[in-house]
Amino acid sequence: MANRDALRAFQSRLAGRLQAARSSGVSASWLAVEAGDAKFLFPLGHAGEIFPWTPPQPVPYTQQWFLGVSNLRGGLYGVIEFATFAAGRRTGPVTEAARAQSRLVALNELLEVNCALLIDRLVGLRGVEAFVSSKPPAEDAPAWTGVSYTDEAGEEWQEVNLQALSQQPQFLSIGA
After folding, report:
1. CA-based nearest residue to 40, from 121, 104, 111
2. pLDDT for 87
3. What's the pLDDT score for residue 92?
4. How confident is the model at residue 32 (pLDDT cuts 50, 70, 90)?
5. Which residues, at least 6 apart from 112, have a Cβ–Cβ distance to it below 8 Å?
6. Backbone φ/ψ region at 74: left (φ over 0), alpha (ψ -120 to 50), beta
7. pLDDT category, 120, cuts 50, 70, 90?
8. Is-contact 158 148, C-beta < 8 A?
């Protein structure tokens, strides 16, 4: 129960910050998350509801990054371990303490894919003004990657086009 209250409080703070950013003229474009050793930017228009970690029901004979299915607020969602999907390999064991910070970010229902991405940590909202430089994706980068941004601390953030991701054959083909 405490986790639900904490999540509701976090979502309320996030909504309040988004509203404050809109009224102050600063526009937040992305939900900033960490998955594995990488930092990602999910477009707010493509990200859906954020859920606390809920262990999914495993599904046999699927890709290593497909953790199974979960009932999230009455809907059945496939759960993708985003760090493993993005890296193409398992990123290592996760402790219970680390899993407590994990969240499931559902894709916006407009994308018509009942899927939630397991991320390790929510960082907050970001706009383009939060970064000091950017570079286009490499020619050999996956089609779902966008621009890479660097913040003032020198941390690199990878933009993820969730719409393009949801249409990738690899993403849609969960079978091993």
Report:
1. 121
2. 86
3. 67
4. very high
5. 166
6. left
7. very high
8. yes
The label of the residue with tokens 């290593």 reads 64
3-state helix, strand, coil in the chain (%, to 5): 30, 40, 35
- pTM for the complete prediction? 0.82
Q: What are the tokens at 42?
A: 């999910």
Q: In this structure, what token pair is assigned to residue 145?
A: 């990657």
Residue with token string 């993708």: 80
Q: How many CA atoms lie within 13 A of 100 on its CB side?
A: 6
* Structure tokens that stand for 97 in this block: 């303490």
| H helix runs in the chain, sequence order | 2-23, 82-87, 96-101, 162-166, 169-172
- Report the C-alpha gap between 93 and 81 in whole angstroms: 12
48 burial via Cβ count (<10 Å: 0-12, 13-18, 19+): buried
